[in-house]
Amino acid sequence: MSASQTEPLAAAPAPAKKAISPWRRLLSAFFESKLAVVGLVGLVLIILAALFAPLLAPQNPYDLTQIDIMDSKLPPGAESYTGMIYVLGTDGQGRDMLSGILYGLRISLIVGVLSGFFALLIGTSMGLSAAYFGGRVETLIMRLVDLQLSFPAILVALILLAILGRGVDKVILALIVVQWAYYARASRGAALVERRKEYIESARSLALSTPRIIFRHLLPNCLPPVIVIGTVQVANAIALEATLSFLGIGLPVTEPSLGLLISNGFNYLLSGRYWISFFPGLALLLTIIAINLVGDQLRDILNPRLQR
Amino acid sequence: MRPLMYAVAGVFAAVSLLSAPVSAAELRVGLSTEPTSVDPHYHNLSPNNALATHIFGNLVEQGPVQELLPGLATSWKPVADDVWEFKLREGVKFHDGSPFTADDVVFTIKRAGNVPDSPSSFAIYTAAIKDVKVVDPLTVHFVTDGPYPLLPNDLSGIAIVSRKYGEGASTADYNSGKAAIGAGPYKLVSFTPGQSIVLEANKNYWGDKPKFEKVTFRPITNPAARVAALLSGDVDLIDGVPTADIAQLKKNSAVSLSDAVSNRIIYLHIDSDREVTPHVTAKDGKEIKNPFKDVRVRKAISMAINRKAIVDRVMEGVAIPAGQLLPKGFFGVSPNIEVPKYDPEAAKKLLAEAGYPDGFKLTIHGPNDRYINDAQIVQAVAQMLSRVGIDTAVDTMPRSTFFGRASKLEFSLLLVGWGSGTGEASSPLKSLLATYDKEKGMGPSNRGRYSNPEFDKTLAQALVTVDDAKREKLLQKATEIAMADVGLIPLHYEVSTWATRKGFEYTGRSDQATQAMDVTIK
Amino acid sequence: MSVFILRRLMQSLVLLCVMTIIVFAGVYAIGNPIDILISPDATQAEYDRAVRALGLDLPLWQQYLVFLSKLVQGDLGKSFVFNEPALTLVFSRLPATLELAFAAMLLSIVIGIPLGLWAGLRPDSVAGRSIMAGSIFGFSLPNFWQGLMLIMVFSVFLQWLPAGGRGPTANFLGINSSLFTAEGWQHLLLPALNLALFKMSLVIRLTRAGVRETLLLDYVKFARAKGLSSRRVIFVHVFKNILIPLVTVIGLELGSVIAFAVVTETIFAWPGIGKLIIDSIFVLDRPVIVAYLIVIVLMFITINLIVDILYSVLDPRVRLADMKS
C-alpha cells in the first residue's frame, strides 16, 4: 500500500502538507487516533505471541506424548503430576489451554490473513477489470461472481472440504473460493462510479497504459469499500473457520485453531467449565477487535473523500 | 466465572420450581435425532422405529432390556423345524375401530421389505420368511428357510399396519396421516419434518392406558440447545444428555436424570487381513508389512489402552469398560471374559517380541458426529498408543464420508460402534466378526476382514440351533474365540441418558429409543 | 430494460446448469448416501437393492441425464431420506427461513441506520464512539457462541424467551406465518437477534462511513452554508447518498442471511431450509441439496436484479445500459 496510491487526491485539498512525504503523512494520520494505536499495539503483540508460540508455550499441545488424558478439564491454576502449572486450565484431552491458545492463534491468523490476502488480490483484480473493460469481460466475470455468490459460502466450504479432506492449506483454499467474489463485487461497484469521473477520462485521453490507469488511478479510489470488506473478511474468515470446525470439518482435531478450541469448549459451557471455551473465545475476540480497530483507521485515512 | 455459573444454575433451579409442570396430560420431548418418516417400513432407522412403536405396535415387543414380550401376538412357538406358530391377541382394534386380524399380518410381511425407494428396507427381518399361512383369524404360521431361531427377534422389529389403509399407500400417505392408522397406544395428529410430531392418546388401546393426552416430539439436534430447552422449561424430557453436562444437572433439583446401559459397543476395528495396510508405515515413512496380522500386536494395542481412563475422563463416568460385544445381562454374553487389563509395559514387551521394539507410525480414523464423544475417544486412544511407542496421528470426519470410506477398507485402525438391534450376541458376531461373504450375507460390517474358521463354524452352528440354552452356549463360545484372538478391540458400552423436568420420570431403555410409554408422572 | 432482464434470465439458466453439474460431481465425490442411510445389519444383497432403488448404480452422467429429463417435467426427484418430493420439502421449510431472514434484516436496519447516522454525525461524541465500539464487538463474536450465550441469558437465566423452535402460525392474507402470533414473535426474537447482530454492525458502519463522506462533499457543505436546516440536509442529501451502499449491502446480505441461517437454525432448532440443507449434506441427500440450491439461486438472481435496478434509480451515474448484461 504505497503512498502513491493517494496521489490523485493529494493534489486537491491539502497544499499545506506538501513538504512532508506522503508516507509520513499517512503514518501521522494513523497515529491521530489513540484507539487505533491501541489496536495496532495489540495486534503487534498478538502477532509476536503467535510467531514465538513455541518459545512462550509451556508445552507443545500438538505432541500427543506431552498431553495426558488424566489431566483433562482441570481448572485454571491446577497443577499436573509433573509439577507444571496449567495457568488457564486444560481442555477435554488434557491439553494446556495457554499453549493451545498460543498455537491456535497461529493457525487462525494464518488462515484468516492468507485467505483474505489472496481473495482480495484475486477479487479486486477481477472487479476492476470488469468495471474498466466492460463488455464481454465484465459479463463473464460478473456472472462468475453471481455463480459464486449464489452458493451460500458455508455450503461451498462444506462441500469443498468434504471432498478435499482436512488440513490448513485446504481450509485456506476453501476460504479463498468463498471470499473472492465479495471483493470483486464491491470493487466493481465502486469502480463503476469512479470510471465516469473526470480524472479517469482525462487519464484515458492522456493515453496512459491500461494497467497504469487501473492500478494507479482506479484502484486507490476504489480501495475504501474494499478495505471495509477486507477488515470484515479477515475477521469473517477466522469466524467461518470456527463455524466449519463447529460443524465438524476443516482442521485436524489434534491441531486445533482458536475456533476449534472454542467449539470443543462449547460442549462444556453449560457445565461450568467455562475456561475451555472462554479463554480461546477471549483471544479470538481480542484479535478480531485489534484487526478491526486498525482496519477502521486505515480506512478513514485512505478514504480520499474524507481528506480534510 | 465459576461461582457465577453456579449462581446461574441455582437461581434457575429456584425459578423453575415455581413454574413446575404445566399439565400432566401433556408431554413435550426434545429428541436428539429426528424420525424421517411415519411410514414404519420406509427406513430402518432407530428414531423411526421408536415413533412407529407409539403408533403401530408389533407382534412381539421389546422390553427395557430388549427382552421379548407379547404384543399383538400373545404367544409363539416352533411347531416344526421350519414353522413358527403365532397366536394373535383377541379383540384388538385399529385407531379407526376396525379389527386387527391375521390378514393384516400377511399384508404387513409383504409390505415391510417392498416399500419403493427405501434407502434401508426391512427386508433383512423378513428375508428368512418363505411363507405366511393364515390358520384362522387369530393364528398365523410362518414358514422359514430351514430352522430359524431368531424369527421372534426379527418380528419384534416390524410394525404391523392395517391392510385397509396400507394397501397401495405410499410413504407420503403415512406422513400425511391418511394411512397412519395403527393399533398402538398413540394416534398421529401431525408430522411436520424439522419442527414437530404431535400424537394423541388412543383411548381404546388394548394394553396399559396411555398416560398423556398429547405428546409432542421436537427435534433439537444440537446437544447444548437441547439441555437449554429442558432448563428453560420448553420441553419435559430430553434424550442424549451430553456427558459434559451430567455432573452439573445432577446437582440441579429441578431436573432428574435416568440412564440405561445400551446395547451399543464402541470398539476399534483392526485390519488383520491385508499384507500391507494403508495407514501404517515404519517411523521413517517406509512401507512395512501389516503388523496387525500378528495377534501379539493386536493384543499389545488392546493392553495399551486405558479403558477406565477413557470412561472416567472422556465419558465422565457415563459408560462401561468393555471386554466383549454386549454388556452383562444380554443373551449370549460370556461370563468368562474380563475387561483387558491396562498394562503399557507388557504392551511394549509384546510389541518388541513381535519385532517392533521401536513401534511404527499409524493413523487412526473415526467419525466425529456419530457416537457419544467419538472424536474425543479417538484422540485419547492416540495418546495412549503414542505412549507405548506407536506414533499415532488422528483423522476424524463426518459420517457422510467416514462410513463410505470405512466400507471401502480405506482405513487400518478405526473407531466404530455397533448396537445390537436384536438384543443378543448373534447380531454383532455375524456382522462384525464372521468371515466376509457377500453371497451368504455374512460379515457385512467386518471392516477389519477378520477371519477365523473355527469361529465361523461355531457361529454357523449357533444360528441354526433353536434350543435357547444350547444356542447361548455356542454364542458364548464364539465370542470367547474371537476375543482371545483380538478380532476387534472393544472399548466401552455406551450408557444412554435421559433428563426430565421435575414431575416426570423416565425409565431408560437399552435400545436407546425414547418412548412416551416409558415416562411416568410423579 | 426488458432486453436486460431477458439476458439476465438466459445467463441464469446457464448458471443453474453449471451449478447442478457441480453439485452432482461434488456429492458423488463425497460418498454414497446408502453408506449412511442403510441399517448396519444389512447384507450386501440389501445394499445393492437400495443402491438400485435410488438409481445410484448408474454412471454419474446417466444419473445427471435422468435428473435433467425429470427436471424438464418439473420433477426435482424425491428425497432419499424423507421419500417426499424434494421441492415440496424445500418449499415447506422456506417460509420459516424467510420469516427469520426478514425479521433479522428488519432488526438490523431499524436499529442499525439510526445508530449509524448518529455515529456519523457525531463521530467524536461518547455515544458515537460507543456505537462504533459496539459495532466492532458485533463483528467479532463467533455466531454459534453468541447464539448459545443468548440462550443462556434470555432463556435459561432470565426465562424471558423460549430457547428455540418456531411458534404457532396463523393465516393472514393467505400467508401462513408465525409473524402473526404473539407466541410466534417470542420464538422468533432470539434467533432473529442472533442472525441480525452481525448485519447490524455492518449497517452501522456503512451508514456512518456514508454520512461522513457525504458531509464533506461540496454540495452538502453548500447546502449547509445556504442555511438549510441541518435536519433537512441530513434527510434529503445525506440520506439519499448513503442509500446506494446500503441497498447493495441489504440486497446482497439478505441472500447471505438466508444462506447463513444454517448455524442459527441449528442452534435454535428453527425448522427452516438452513437446517434442512445442513442435515441433507450430512446424509448426502442429493435431490434435496439440488432443489435447495435451485431455489436459493433463483432467489439470489431476483435479489441481484432488483439491486441493480435500484442502483440505476438511486444513482443516475450508473445506468443499466452500463451493465451490458
UniProtKB/TrEMBL annotation, chain A:
A GO biological process held by the record: transmembrane transport
Localisation per UniProt entry: Cell membrane
Membrane topology: Multi-pass membrane protein
Name of this chain's protein: Peptide ABC transporter permease
InterPro entries assigned to the protein according to its UniProt record, in alphabetical order: BP-dependent_transpt_permease, MetI-like, MetI-like_sf, OppC_N
Pfam families membership: BPD_transp_1, OppC_N
One GO location term (cellular component): plasma membrane
Transmembrane segments: 35-57, 107-133, 145-165, 226-254, 274-295
Span of domain ABC transmembrane type-1: 105-295
Source organism per UniProt: Oceanibaculum pacificum
Main location: membrane
Family matches, as PANTHER family: ABC TRANSPORTER PERMEASE PROTEIN, OLIGOPEPTIDE TRANSPORT SYSTEM PERMEASE PROTEIN APPC
Keyword Transport on entry: yes
CDD domains named in the record: TM_PBP2 (cd06261)
Protein family per UniProt: Belongs to the binding-protein-dependent transport system permease family.
Origin superkingdom: Bacteria
Signal peptide start and end residues: none
Keywords from the UniProt entry: Cell membrane, Membrane, Transmembrane, Transmembrane helix, Transport
TrEMBL record, chain B:
Localization: Periplasm
Chief localization: periplasm
Keyword Chloroplast: no
Single biological process term from Gene Ontology: peptide transport
Keywords: Signal, Transport
Molecular function in Gene Ontology: peptide transmembrane transporter activity
Gene3D superfamilies attached to this UniProt entry: Dipeptide-binding Protein, Domain 1 (3.90.76.10), Dipeptide-binding Protein, Domain 3 (3.10.105.10), Periplasmic binding protein-like II (3.40.190.10)
Domain Solute-binding protein family, chain residue ranges per copy: 68-437
Matches recorded under InterPro entries: Peptide/Ni-bd, SBP_5, SBP_5_dom
Signal sequence, start to end: 1-24
GO cellular component, one term: ATP-binding cassette (ABC) transporter complex
Family: Belongs to the bacterial solute-binding protein 5 family.
Name recorded for this polypeptide: ABC transporter substrate-binding protein
Native species: Oceanibaculum pacificum
TrEMBL record, chain C:
Key word Cell membrane present: yes
Membrane-topology descriptor: Multi-pass membrane protein
InterPro entries noted in UniProt: BPD_transp_1_N, MetI-like, MetI-like_sf
Cited PROSITE patterns: ABC_TM1 (PS50928)
Transmembrane segments: 12-31, 100-121, 133-158, 188-207, 233-252, 258-278, 290-314
Matching CDD domains: TM_PBP2
SUPFAM superfamilies: MetI-like
Pfam families: BPD_transp_1, BPD_transp_1_N
Alphabetized PANTHER family for the sequence: ABC TRANSPORTER PERMEASE PROTEIN, DIPEPTIDE TRANSPORT SYSTEM PERMEASE PROTEIN DPPB-RELATED
Family as reported in the entry's similarity comment: Belongs to the binding-protein-dependent transport system permease family.
Protein name: ABC transporter permease
Organism field: Oceanibaculum pacificum
